[in-house]
């Protein structure tokens, strides 16, 4: 039997949608509520360490976590990388650094944007501080980091 050729391509419209909204839950919701209020929270892990940003379950024991604790608005750069050309949707429209920052009172670092003019202006161990947006809505974009010029002179 000879193979037939098919001249017509079958098509079916496909619409991918997610017609629901996920709630942030009691832990992440509390974190973002605090951000809207100009505060940062971590959560106490089973071993007593503080995780920031908070998460719902202990990374070692998988136990639910519920004890939210305040953390500082200053911290230390653990590591960083430089962005020469900012892309659409990034926090700045100019070069900047992404940094892992361990906030005072937290044992884990948080990844966030660090506003510096050049790679020469950032280093591991550098003290940084939170810079809050004038209008906050409870999103991670309600703040970024900048060098902590007040405390960096005291620690030098």
UniProtKB/TrEMBL annotation:
Q: Which SUPFAM superfamilies match?
A: Nucleic acid-binding proteins
Q: Which residues form the ChsH2 C-terminal OB-fold domain?
A: 69-132
Family matches, as Gene3D superfamilies: 6.10.30.10, Nucleic acid-binding proteins
User: Known Pfam families for this protein?
Assistant: OB_ChsH2_C (PF01796)
Superkingdom of this protein's organism: Bacteria
Listed name of the protein: ChsH2 C-terminal OB-fold domain-containing protein
Q: What is the lineage of its organism?
A: Bacteria, Bacillati, Actinomycetota, Acidimicrobiia, Acidimicrobiales
């Amino acid at each position: 039997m000879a193979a037939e050729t098919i001249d017509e391509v079958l098509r079916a419209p496909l619409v991918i949608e997610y017609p629901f909204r996920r709630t942030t839950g009691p832990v992440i919701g509390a974190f973002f509520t605090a951000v809207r209020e100009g505060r940062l929270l971590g959560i106490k892990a089973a071993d007593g360490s503080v995780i920031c940003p908070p998460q719902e379950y202990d990374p070692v024991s998988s136990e639910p976590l519920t004890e939210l604790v305040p953390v500082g608005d200053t911290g230390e750069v653990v590591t960083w990388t430089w962005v020469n050309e900012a892309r659409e949707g990034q926090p700045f429209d100019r070069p900047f650094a992404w940094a892992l920052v361990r906030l005072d009172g937290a044992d884990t670092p948080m990844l966030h944007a660090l506003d510096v003019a050049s790679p020469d202006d950032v280093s591991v161990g550098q003290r940084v501080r939170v810079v809050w947006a004038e209008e906050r809505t409870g999103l991670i974009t309600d703040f970024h980091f900048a060098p902590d010029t007040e405390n960096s002179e005291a620690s030098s």
